[in-house]
Design goal:
Helix content: 10-25%
Structural class: mainly beta
Number of helices: 2
Order of helices and strands: HHEEEEEEEE
Number of domains: 1
Strand order of the largest sheet: 1-2-3-6-7-8
């Protein structure tokens, strides 16, 4: 695998790469917000309706960095958030991106 740091350009995951990771955890999602800058996608969200009324699950990709509207992350990650009646009821990281190897690692 190519070392992106030595190359001088950090690889920014594409929408397709992000959806491949999310697809390992979820099916039948609805694409939500997509925010990009000159480097590419920095925020990407998909939602899934829950089994009960008022339940939803959101998968959120956030690229490492500081972005407009107070969006900020110390690492490139995909996080899952569980909602009950629109109120966050828990969540955790499902995958972290290694910019040195260009690979996603599932969080166990």
């Amino acid at each position: 695998m190519e070392n992106y740091i030595e190359r001088g350009n950090e690889h920014i995951p594409t929408k397709e790469e992000i959806l491949n990771v999310i697809g390992r955890h979820a099916e039948s999602y609805i694409v939500g917000r997509e925010l990009s800058d000159e480097k590419g996608l920095y925020l990407f969200e998909v939602k899934i309706e829950g089994g009960k009324a008022g339940e939803t699950t959101e998968y959120q990709y956030m690229r490492k960095g500081t972005f407009p509207n107070h969006n900020e992350s110390l690492e490139t990650t995909i996080h899952v958030i569980y909602f009950e009646n629109g109120i966050p009821a828990g969540g955790h990281d499902i995958a972290n991106y290694n910019s040195e190897t260009g690979e996603w690692k599932d969080v166990e």
